[in-house]
Design goal:
By secondary structure, the chain is of the alpha+beta class. The protein has four helices and five strands; from the N terminus they run ααααβββββ. The protein folds into two domains: 2-78, no CATH class; 97-152, OB fold (Dihydrolipoamide Acetyltransferase, E2P), CATH 2.40.50.140. The protein has helices spanning 2-19, 24-40, 45-68, 73-78; strands spanning 103-106, 113-118, 121-127, 137-144, 147-152. A five-stranded mixed beta barrel has the order 1-2-3-5-4. Helix 1 (2-19) packs antiparallel against helix 2 (24-40) and helix 2 (24-40) runs antiparallel to helix 3. Keywords: Membrane, Transmembrane, Transmembrane helix. It comes from Veillonella tobetsuensis.
Length: 153
């Protein structure tokens, strides 16, 4: 009857893992539960093989479940099926290569990122690392991707 104690403790620890996630309580609970199974089966070599077999089977089942869950009908309820791609017109920031070499005025303090007014448009800019106070004239040094890199004029 000693094995029932270990089974109950293992189930309790795995239940705690459901409430307080982190992995530690669940792994310890699973180990304690398997110890209870091992003792309950007599503690022989056959019991050891049974525990190892159950563990390997559980790992394979969990890997299969997590790899295929998003394709099941219930998995589609839990996952977002839409993607925001550039082909669909979703662009995070326009690349404004025409700004290179133009001058403007820092509208906010650039620490090192902020907003500048260039050609009567508000543009997100980034300095080369220095802070630039609002109202300071700036020049766009280069445009890399969506980043407009500026320095004081």
């Amino acid at each position: 009857m000693d094995y029932i104690f270990w089974l109950v403790i293992g189930i309790m620890l795995m239940a705690i893992e459901l409430v307080i996630p982190g992995g530690i309580a669940g792994l310890i609970g699973y180990s304690v539960f398997m110890w209870g199974v091992f003792i309950g089966l007599g503690g022989t070599d056959l019991a050891l093989y049974a525990v190892l077999g159950i563990t390997i089977l559980l790992v394979v089942l969990l890997l299969t479940f997590f790899n295929h869950f998003s394709r099941t009908w219930i998995g589609k309820l839990f996952t977002l099926g839409q993607r925001s791609t550039a082909q669909q017109g979703y662009v995070s920031n326009d690349v404004q290569t025409d700004l290179e070499g133009k001058t403007g005025v820092a509208q906010s303090t650039l620490r090192p990122a902020g907003v500048a007014r260039i050609d009567d448009q508000f543009v997100d800019v980034v300095t080369e690392g220095d802070f630039i106070e609002a109202g300071t004239p700036i020049v766009v040094v280069r445009v890399v991707g969506g980043r407009n890199i500026v320095r004081p004029q």
